[in-house]
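ARCHIVE CARD
Drawer: 12
Card no.: 0347
Subject: one protein chain, sequence and derived structure
Cross-reference: see card 0346
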Amino acid sequence: HALTLCLKANHRHTGALLYQAENAIDAEQYDDANELLDKIVAINPKHPAAWAYRSIIAGLKNDQRHATEYRAAALSTWNENPLVDHLIGKKLSQKYRFTEGAAHQQQALAFDNAFLPARVQLAQDFLRLGKEDEGWKLGEAASKADAYDVHVFNLMQLRDALAKYTTLENDSFIVRMEAKEAAIYGDAVLDLLRRAKRDLCAKYGLELKDRITVEIFPEPNDFAVRTFGMPGAAGYLGVCFGKVITANSPASQKDHPSNWQAVLWHEFCHVVTLEKTHNRMPRWLSEGISVYEERQAHPTWGQRMTAKSRTRILNGLTTPIRELSGAFLRPESPADLNFAYFQSSLVVEYFIERYGIDALKKVLDDLATGLPIDPALERHLAPLDQLDEEFREYAAQMARELAPNLDWEKYDLSAIRDDDDPDRLVRWVADHPNSLQGLTVLAVQHIEKREFAEAKKPLAKLIELYPEQVGDDCPYELLAAIHKELKETADERRVLEQYAARTDSAVPSLLRLVELQSTAADWPAAHETVRQLLSINPLLPQTQRARAATAEQLNDSSDALTALEAMLLMEPDDPAELHFRLAKLLHQQNDPRAKSHVLQALEAAPRYRDAQKLLLKIVRERKE
């Protein structure tokens, strides 16, 4: 709004026009950006930033002749202006072209070695390219030049934090994690990444030669500084720069952690597509493939059709394919951004189902050569207008197939809800037996009145009509809670198992489910639920406690040891018991560490009779 007022007052305000052009470049609307730059050049034919932005657009289109020509025009009034190459490089890096961006920052520093913005940007470029020695060296030099620069200060604070991390390595990955977290689930991270590399590289035909760096942060601000250069960037679970992945750990997400395995699978898919295209792909396609591959990897991962996305699609609110990257730029709400991810994944799914995975791989190959996305799609799939039309029908059909027997109509039930007659809503639902709104309102009304037996029927009907509903007003959670209240244990477990098959992040429900399965001594089922909990938050003591119990019952000594060792790192209330259980397991394997753990058990609880007996047994056996 302020920008509009500025240009209304002065339509020749070059700063405002340049800001609009930058936004258009960010949204990959390059023709619109060039029109705005034309206006600036008409006002000032030698405006260095305008020509620098023209060079950026040409470079992004792989038109190196014009990129060089426009850069020269930007330098025409001052042939060693460091700002020109800094602007070009910074924007290229924002487009994930870090190698090219770094080269421009190096040129800016060749013009003026004291130009701090280029030094800071180059440090970040090197860090995102995995060139850590060079990156931290530049950051240190920038700090000496200006210790009060906010970006530099944040970078140095991050370096100090990372120095305390544990590094896990194999032939394919370098993983950095907080020490305790590395001990608890670092091996699981490496295993997940190994499987992702095996499956996704084979699927997309990529031979990945370089090792990939993965950094997992328990502090959100450390993640934000490593990823964006500044603290306070909320809403991101992970980011991939090509050869470097950064991610928030479950510890950073408090009570509602996302599935860390799904996050890393998503981000490694970015590694594959960015490496395959040499970082030359639009954001919507990169995000779309990653979300699509989440869904392919696990039945509970990734975004799926919801009531809200169904409404958007059937109301014709999908974004044209050529404009999809803009939907990520400045969404009006988190829901808009969420839908941009989902629509992009649906476009990819449509491409693969309609034209095949090989056609999509050919598009990626063309992007790697520098061909823009629109002609690449038209070359291997179909004209863009045809793709848009076909996709709209594809998406609409998928939306119509979501709970097809459900009545999705929005009714005005205010008068009925406020009526003194409690049976009026019951009669209305009887006349509209498949109404999502009516069944939900009726169930909630019964629950509020503690009429639990009566609430079961509408909730069961909702699950029957719309089994995929796991978001707001989730009927599975409500129905399970009612069964628990009524002490209907078998029914509660049945509902929770149905829910577990459809959710990747419902920790409280999964903890309750594993409790019920353990009580029933159904250890194989409990083991599967524990696996699901570990994929969400392995840092919960309850999760590791359930893991240890199920592993012990299934005679899986290795898993039990891992769980008990993890629990010891979580400041347990009864360390003596954990040390004793560890000692027992290790003693069964003739592991000499058993004595150390039984002694630690007795140190915490000197009168622990079972530990005393085990210690005597260990000492006696050693003498023999």
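Annotation on reverse: Strands lie at 166-169, 173-177, 212-217, 238-240, 244-248. Residues 280-402 form one domain.
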